Amino acid sequence: MCRKIKKRTDRVLIACLLVFLLFLTGCWSRRDLTEISIVAGIGLDRTEDGKIILTVQVVEPAAVQSTASGKGGSAQQKPVFAESYEGETVYDAVRGILSVVDKKMFFGSAQVLIIGERLAQDGIEEVLDYFIRDHDFDYEIYILVAKDTTPMEIFEMETDIDAIPSVYIYGTVDNTESRGTVKKTMLIDVIKEMSGNEKQFAIGSITKAGEMRVKTEGVAVFRDGKLAGWMDRYETRGYLFAMDKIKNAIINVPAGNGKIAMEIMRSKGKISVEFNNGELSALIVNVKVYANVGEYKGKGRLETPDSLYELEKALGEEIRKEITMAVEKTQKEYCSDIFGFGSYVRKYHPRYWKKAKRDWLAIFSELPVIVNVDAKAERVGIVMSPIE
Amino acid sequence: MVRRVKKPARIKTETRIPAHKYISSDSNLPVPSTVDEVKTRLSEIFSCCSDFIQREISCGKNRLIKIVVAYLNGFVDKRILNQDVIRPILDFLSNAAMNESMSISEQLKECVVVNNDIKEACNMQQAVDGIVSGEALIFIDGEETALVIGVKAPQGRPVKEPDTEISIRGAREGFVENLLTNTTLIRKRIKNPNLKLEMMQLGKQTKTDVCICYIKGIANEEIIGEVRRRLKKIDIDSVLDVGIIEQYISDSKFSLFPTVGNSEKCDKLAGKLLEGRIAIFCDGTPQVLTLPYLFIESIQNTDDYYDHAIFATVIRFLRLTALLLSTLLPGIYVALVSYHHAVIPFRLMIALAASRQGIPFSPFIEAILMIIAFELMREAGVRMPKPIGQSLSIVGAIVLGEASVAAGIASNLIVIIVSITAICSFVVPPLIRVIMLLRFTVLLAANLMGFLGIIILIVVVFAHLCRMRSFGVPYMAPFSPLTSADLKDSFVVVPIWAMVTRPGILRQEKAEGAKGTKRQEVMLNSDVQKD
Questions:
Q1: CA distances, A338 to each of A184, A239, A281 (Å)
Q2: Which chain B residue has the Cα nearest residue A69?
Q3: Same domain, yes or no, for A215 and A259?
Q4: Do A113 and A203 share a domain, yes or no?
Q5: For chain A, percent helix, then strand, then coil, each to nearest 5?
Q6: A71 with A198, same domain?
Q7: Residue B331: in which H helix or E strand, if any?
Q8: Does A246 lie in the same domain as A103?
């Protein structure tokens, strides 16, 4: 009898728990796919009088499908359209844009978030708040900073590579895995950096390359959440080597009067610091790379172990140069610790960090840099030496 | 408990009064002692039965002995009746080698009639029962009992491959409507006196022969007892199909999931019997019930055991996938399109949105309409003569597939989804109807609550499944309760040479646990040896 009652209460309890589950769900509202605007790209910029401009690139699914399937009539609908709206805040603009576009924006599908140069200079901290707070966003969306252009210009560009320009941009950022010249930055990365103490970080940059193309190369360096300057593709690569973000890259190594293109197959980068008598004495970057000979432009031989040894040394030197360039630029020009030496010190030398915290950037920018690159050449390919 | 449907029964009572009265009032009466009386009684009972034939023969050397032969025309084999029964009797009576110490009917039974199937009827009830079930009645004047001789003519269609269960490998023989043919087909496969066939009659009006079949020493005695008990409780007028018995004896009367299986294939049934299951044959039905029936049997097939185990395993997974897809796919589509846009990959989202563009219905209505259209087609196709069925499928394919999309009423994708759903539902035949209803429920849940609704529904259905029993055996065995030894024939099929033990779950006595099972096994083995 007693057990029976217990069983019944158990059942009621389980039923209640199941009902409570209903209130835990976030997505309540039912919206058909045809009732939303599928946003492919988001742009944010600032007007001269300090307002936020929101630019969205919205996909017209039917038009995309008809271009994909090759059908398509004479008066073809464009697969995407771009629309902008000025608002006091980001959210204001997000809702305000509905006065121009009929269907509610769905941001979960956005591929890229492009930040205008002016807004970046003023600081992206406050505008990103909306993106963190709202549930609609995909945290893995790529962030880029527009250099010498505006988000609106990029989104209005027509490209023949993909029906949806945002997808094309996404693709160019994604393929940095085989070139290592732009930093793949996700919204979640920026959010993490911003909530840390240092607020110094780098975001990949995007420029226009002709009428129908964009180029994603280099990074924008931020100090205290504001744009401090740019780094070119070599410096970016040095930075990525140090941050252990290089998957694959091509390094040109001078050899005689020609060049050898080395393909980096694996790379391991690590930063640390050196102490001397209780004082910070140097910044250290250790990189170990394994590379294959990809191309030999010029005349020379690679038959002996010695020649390979020379090649390794030269490769190491090239990489060392790039890294040093990157570190020194951030130290001297931008005064921004994007490498995270500060975090390293805080983590491993907390006692020193306590007193150095306040004027860390000043200390950082004065320190000498030691870069150690250990390069290994693994394979030379089918031919030992160039064809004569 | 066997529930009786009360209302129809009461209505029937009035109509069946005359027939009922005869049988109940005469049941205890002995057979009248004179031929004339017997003849009058029989013609009273079989009045207005044009197929009833009774004939009086008088013969004998010293004194004339009157005999009555009564049978139903067309039901008995007249050649056998004449050659093996009447002729010897006539010869015997005319030649007067009579033994005075025995009654004539006893002598006939012992040493005259050639036919083996011969019984004595002590009262009118038995006599009439014999006649209506196709036996011939022979009454000799002055005797107390009548002889009932089985001279039934073989009837019905020949044994052929069943249309409902087609298999690539394995026997092509299927059961027929004749009970004796069916039991013979099983005997042919299991040549063992331990194969028991318990005969009984069900249905007050129809007196249908029903047979419980099992292998003694393999089947669980308790389950056999339970089957007998449940069958005895059935109190109805007619058993026209084994499906009626199924409804009376199944455990969860309100559950949609089947707890009694059925098969038309002899080799499948033999396999089930050898696993320790019990079969119920019913005269007039080619389907044979098997029980206990567990969920896992829905995705098992005889072909699985006749081919390489790897293929069987892969196909089991396919069947399981088909089962899930067929139930969930339309629901998942509706949930994705209406609620969870964020989980759809970007390209797919565009494709989905493009296919939905300009459709006037919500995804839910769209899906429901298409599924109903398909179910209608299926239902129409099942009952239709084959030549018309073809034109139906053409109409269905063109109207549903092409025209509705071209007219902008349904999206391309829903047509694909409904087609996949339909194909998948045919992969698991025993569950087709359950899946159909579940599919609608899933759709509704998805429309109301998205994935959450689907999950809640899945939890509820699984809770229901795990609670169910088939003749005391947990329906979800071997998964719940987990019987690791029985997993050999679940989602994974081990090779037949490694499948050495019978399903343990069927052997369980009241107390669960390996100990009891083992002891029982030993006991039964020794029994078998003694036999």
A1: 14, 9, 19
A2: B351
A3: no
A4: yes
A5: 40, 30, 30
A6: yes
A7: helix B309-338
A8: no
Q: How many domains does chain A have?
A: 2
Which tens digits make up the pLDDT trace of B36-79? 888 888 888 888 888 888 888 887 777 778 888 888 888 888 88
In this structure, is residue A173 part of a structural domain? yes
Residue B389 is predicted with a pLDDT of: 74
Q: Which of A189, A206, A231 is where one domain is finished?
A: A231
Find the domain containing A300 and state its range.
238-388
3-state helix, strand, coil in chain B (%, to 5): 55, 15, 35
Cβ(B278)–Cβ(B216) under 8 Å?
A: no
Determine whether the interchain pair B357/A64 forms a contact, defined as Cβ–Cβ distance below 8 Å: no
- Whether residues A167 and A253 share a domain: the answer is no
A20 in a structural domain:
no
A104 and A193 assigned to the same domain: yes
Binary contact (B350, A38; C-beta < 8 A): yes
Chain B residues within 8 A of A32 when measuring between CB atoms: 337-338, 356, 362-363
Cα gap A253→A324, rounded to integer Å? 17
Cβ–Cβ gap A32/B356 under 8 Å: yes
Contacts of B366 in chain A (CB under 8 A): none
Task: Say if the ipTM goes beyond 0.85.
Answer: no
Task: Kindly identify which residue of chain B lies nearest to residue A137, measuring between CA atoms.
Answer: B342
Q: List, for residues A274-324, the tens digit of each pLDDT value.
A: 998 888 899 999 999 999 988 888 877 777 888 888 889 999 999 999 999
**Is A307 at the interface with chain B, CB within 8 A?**
no
Write the DSSP assignment of B161-197 as a string of letters. --SSS--SSS---B--S-HHHHHHHHHHH---TTEEE
User: Model-level pTM?
Assistant: 0.80
Whether residue A138 sits in one domain with residue A81: yes
B349–A38 CB contact, under 8 Å: yes
Q: How far is A149 from chain B (nearest CA, A)?
A: 27
Q: Range with the lowest mean pLDDT among A105-119, A152-166, A321-335, B112-126?
A: B112-126
Q: A231, A250, A285: which is the final residue of a domain?
A: A231
What is the CATH classification number for the domain harbouring A366? 3.30.300.210
